[in-house]
Design goal:
Length: 211
Amino acid sequence: MSLQLNDEAPDFTAQTTEGEINFHEWLGDSWGVLFSHPADYTPVCTTELGATARLKDEFARRNVKVAALSVDEVDSHKGWIQDINETQNTQVEFPIIADPDRKIADLYGMIHPNASGNLTVRSLFVIGPDKKIKLMIVYPASTGRNFQEILRVIDSLQLTANYSVATPADWKEGEDVVISGSIKDEEIPAKFPKGHRIVKPYLRMTPQPNK
Ligand code: BEZ
Protein backbone atom coordinates (compact mmCIF):
# COMPACT_ATOMS: atom_id res chain seq x y z
CA MET A 1 0.00 0.00 0.00
CA SER A 2 1.27 3.47 -0.78
CA LEU A 3 2.40 5.87 1.92
CA GLN A 4 -0.22 8.07 3.54
CA LEU A 5 -0.15 11.14 5.78
CA ASN A 6 1.09 10.47 9.30
CA ASP A 7 2.68 7.15 8.31
CA GLU A 8 6.26 6.79 9.51
CA ALA A 9 8.71 7.93 6.83
CA PRO A 10 10.55 4.76 5.74
CA ASP A 11 14.12 4.65 7.03
CA PHE A 12 17.06 3.79 4.76
CA THR A 13 20.81 3.96 4.46
CA ALA A 14 22.18 5.43 1.23
CA GLN A 15 25.17 6.96 -0.51
CA THR A 16 24.88 10.70 -1.00
CA THR A 17 27.00 13.59 -2.20
CA GLU A 18 27.82 14.19 1.47
CA GLY A 19 28.73 10.56 2.28
CA GLU A 20 26.65 7.66 3.54
CA ILE A 21 23.62 8.62 5.62
CA ASN A 22 21.09 6.74 7.68
CA PHE A 23 18.00 8.81 7.01
CA HIS A 24 16.41 8.81 10.47
CA GLU A 25 19.76 9.40 12.21
CA TRP A 26 20.56 12.19 9.78
CA LEU A 27 17.18 13.84 10.46
CA GLY A 28 17.72 13.72 14.21
CA ASP A 29 15.24 16.10 15.87
CA SER A 30 14.84 18.24 12.76
CA TRP A 31 12.02 18.51 10.30
CA GLY A 32 12.91 17.07 6.89
CA VAL A 33 12.17 17.54 3.21
CA LEU A 34 12.91 14.56 0.95
CA PHE A 35 12.29 15.26 -2.72
CA SER A 36 12.93 13.34 -5.90
CA HIS A 37 13.74 14.64 -9.37
CA PRO A 38 13.66 12.62 -12.61
CA ALA A 39 17.30 12.83 -13.61
CA ASP A 40 20.59 14.72 -13.26
CA TYR A 41 21.70 17.10 -16.01
CA THR A 42 18.13 18.03 -16.96
CA PRO A 43 16.89 21.60 -17.20
CA VAL A 44 13.90 21.83 -14.86
CA CYS A 45 15.68 19.73 -12.21
CA THR A 46 18.68 22.06 -12.42
CA THR A 47 16.44 25.05 -11.62
CA GLU A 48 14.65 23.18 -8.80
CA LEU A 49 17.85 22.21 -7.00
CA GLY A 50 19.19 25.71 -7.51
CA ALA A 51 16.02 27.22 -6.01
CA THR A 52 16.29 24.87 -3.02
CA ALA A 53 19.96 25.74 -2.47
CA ARG A 54 19.18 29.47 -2.53
CA LEU A 55 16.60 28.92 0.25
CA LYS A 56 19.21 27.35 2.57
CA ASP A 57 18.75 30.04 5.26
CA GLU A 58 14.94 29.79 5.08
CA PHE A 59 15.02 26.02 5.65
CA ALA A 60 17.60 26.40 8.45
CA ARG A 61 15.48 29.07 10.19
CA ARG A 62 12.63 26.56 10.29
CA ASN A 63 14.91 23.72 11.53
CA VAL A 64 14.39 21.77 8.29
CA LYS A 65 17.00 19.49 6.70
CA VAL A 66 16.66 18.96 2.95
CA ALA A 67 17.72 15.98 0.82
CA ALA A 68 17.20 15.42 -2.92
CA LEU A 69 17.11 12.04 -4.66
CA SER A 70 17.23 10.49 -8.11
CA VAL A 71 18.17 7.12 -9.55
CA ASP A 72 21.55 8.50 -10.71
CA GLU A 73 24.90 7.60 -9.09
CA VAL A 74 26.84 9.78 -6.64
CA ASP A 75 29.50 10.69 -9.22
CA SER A 76 26.80 11.96 -11.57
CA HIS A 77 25.25 14.03 -8.76
CA LYS A 78 28.65 15.50 -7.87
CA GLY A 79 29.40 16.52 -11.45
CA TRP A 80 25.94 18.03 -11.88
CA ILE A 81 26.29 20.09 -8.68
CA GLN A 82 29.07 22.04 -10.43
CA ASP A 83 26.60 22.97 -13.18
CA ILE A 84 23.88 23.90 -10.68
CA ASN A 85 26.26 26.13 -8.76
CA GLU A 86 27.52 27.74 -11.97
CA THR A 87 24.14 28.37 -13.61
CA GLN A 88 21.82 28.97 -10.64
CA ASN A 89 23.92 31.48 -8.69
CA THR A 90 24.14 29.33 -5.57
CA GLN A 91 26.02 26.58 -3.74
CA VAL A 92 24.30 23.22 -3.26
CA GLU A 93 24.99 22.39 0.38
CA PHE A 94 22.44 19.65 0.99
CA PRO A 95 22.87 15.94 0.19
CA ILE A 96 21.71 14.47 -3.10
CA ILE A 97 20.92 10.80 -2.55
CA ALA A 98 21.98 8.18 -5.10
CA ASP A 99 19.34 5.53 -5.63
CA PRO A 100 20.53 3.55 -8.68
CA ASP A 101 18.76 0.36 -7.61
CA ARG A 102 15.55 2.37 -6.87
CA LYS A 103 15.31 0.95 -3.38
CA ILE A 104 14.31 4.27 -1.80
CA ALA A 105 12.17 5.30 -4.77
CA ASP A 106 10.17 2.11 -4.31
CA LEU A 107 9.84 2.61 -0.54
CA TYR A 108 8.41 6.09 -1.13
CA GLY A 109 6.42 5.30 -4.31
CA MET A 110 8.42 7.84 -6.30
CA ILE A 111 8.28 5.92 -9.58
CA HIS A 112 4.97 6.15 -11.40
CA PRO A 113 5.48 3.83 -14.40
CA ASN A 114 2.62 5.27 -16.43
CA ALA A 115 4.09 8.77 -16.08
CA SER A 116 7.82 8.37 -16.25
CA GLY A 117 9.09 4.85 -16.96
CA ASN A 118 12.01 4.02 -14.69
CA LEU A 119 12.62 7.58 -13.47
CA THR A 120 11.37 9.19 -10.29
CA VAL A 121 8.63 11.77 -10.69
CA ARG A 122 8.78 15.03 -8.71
CA SER A 123 7.68 13.67 -5.33
CA LEU A 124 8.18 15.71 -2.17
CA PHE A 125 7.67 14.65 1.44
CA VAL A 126 7.76 16.87 4.52
CA ILE A 127 8.65 14.82 7.58
CA GLY A 128 8.10 15.96 11.17
CA PRO A 129 10.53 15.55 14.08
CA ASP A 130 8.43 12.48 15.03
CA LYS A 131 9.49 10.97 11.64
CA LYS A 132 5.88 11.00 10.45
CA ILE A 133 4.95 12.20 6.95
CA LYS A 134 3.21 15.58 7.19
CA LEU A 135 2.92 16.49 3.49
CA MET A 136 3.17 14.62 0.19
CA ILE A 137 3.06 16.27 -3.21
CA VAL A 138 3.67 14.80 -6.66
CA TYR A 139 4.39 16.87 -9.76
CA PRO A 140 5.05 15.65 -13.29
CA ALA A 141 8.50 15.96 -14.86
CA SER A 142 7.32 18.88 -16.99
CA THR A 143 6.44 21.16 -14.03
CA GLY A 144 9.01 22.54 -11.62
CA ARG A 145 7.83 22.91 -8.04
CA ASN A 146 7.25 26.18 -6.17
CA PHE A 147 9.62 26.01 -3.20
CA GLN A 148 8.09 29.13 -1.63
CA GLU A 149 4.92 27.03 -1.35
CA ILE A 150 6.88 24.32 0.44
CA LEU A 151 8.09 26.90 2.98
CA ARG A 152 4.52 28.20 3.34
CA VAL A 153 3.22 24.72 4.11
CA ILE A 154 6.05 24.10 6.59
CA ASP A 155 5.09 27.35 8.36
CA SER A 156 1.51 26.07 8.59
CA LEU A 157 2.58 22.59 9.75
CA GLN A 158 4.83 24.01 12.46
CA LEU A 159 2.18 26.47 13.65
CA THR A 160 -0.67 23.96 13.74
CA ALA A 161 1.54 21.39 15.53
CA ASN A 162 1.75 23.81 18.47
CA TYR A 163 -1.59 25.64 18.55
CA SER A 164 -5.24 24.61 18.14
CA VAL A 165 -5.56 26.40 14.82
CA ALA A 166 -5.68 25.68 11.10
CA THR A 167 -4.58 27.93 8.25
CA PRO A 168 -7.07 29.15 5.62
CA ALA A 169 -6.69 29.21 1.84
CA ASP A 170 -3.64 31.10 0.60
CA TRP A 171 -2.57 31.84 4.19
CA LYS A 172 0.86 33.28 4.71
CA GLU A 173 2.96 33.70 7.85
CA GLY A 174 1.53 36.61 9.91
CA GLU A 175 -2.06 36.40 8.65
CA ASP A 176 -5.14 35.44 10.67
CA VAL A 177 -5.81 31.75 11.28
CA VAL A 178 -8.85 29.56 11.90
CA ILE A 179 -9.62 28.42 15.46
CA SER A 180 -9.98 24.62 15.62
CA GLY A 181 -13.49 23.24 15.92
CA SER A 182 -12.44 21.37 19.09
CA ILE A 183 -12.20 24.71 20.98
CA LYS A 184 -15.52 25.78 22.55
CA ASP A 185 -16.55 29.44 22.11
CA GLU A 186 -16.21 30.07 25.85
CA GLU A 187 -12.60 28.78 25.82
CA ILE A 188 -11.49 31.16 23.07
CA PRO A 189 -10.66 34.32 25.09
CA ALA A 190 -8.27 32.46 27.38
CA LYS A 191 -6.63 30.48 24.57
CA PHE A 192 -6.48 33.31 22.05
CA PRO A 193 -6.07 36.55 24.04
CA LYS A 194 -5.23 38.59 20.93
CA GLY A 195 -8.93 38.56 20.03
CA HIS A 196 -11.18 36.67 17.67
CA ARG A 197 -14.03 37.03 15.19
CA ILE A 198 -16.95 34.64 14.89
CA VAL A 199 -17.85 34.81 11.18
CA LYS A 200 -20.06 31.72 11.41
CA PRO A 201 -20.32 29.27 14.31
CA TYR A 202 -17.94 27.00 12.38
CA LEU A 203 -15.62 29.77 11.11
CA ARG A 204 -13.83 31.58 13.91
CA MET A 205 -10.71 33.62 13.19
CA THR A 206 -7.88 34.87 15.39
CA PRO A 207 -4.55 36.60 14.81
CA GLN A 208 -1.65 34.18 14.40
CA PRO A 209 -0.97 33.23 18.04
CA ASN A 210 2.84 33.05 17.91
CA LYS A 211 3.40 36.41 16.20
C1 BEZ B 1 13.74 18.39 -16.65
O1 BEZ B 1 14.23 18.45 -15.53
O2 BEZ B 1 13.73 19.34 -17.40
C2 BEZ B 1 13.12 17.11 -17.11
C3 BEZ B 1 13.54 15.90 -16.60
C4 BEZ B 1 12.96 14.74 -17.07
C5 BEZ B 1 11.95 14.79 -18.01
C6 BEZ B 1 11.52 16.03 -18.49
C7 BEZ B 1 12.09 17.20 -18.04
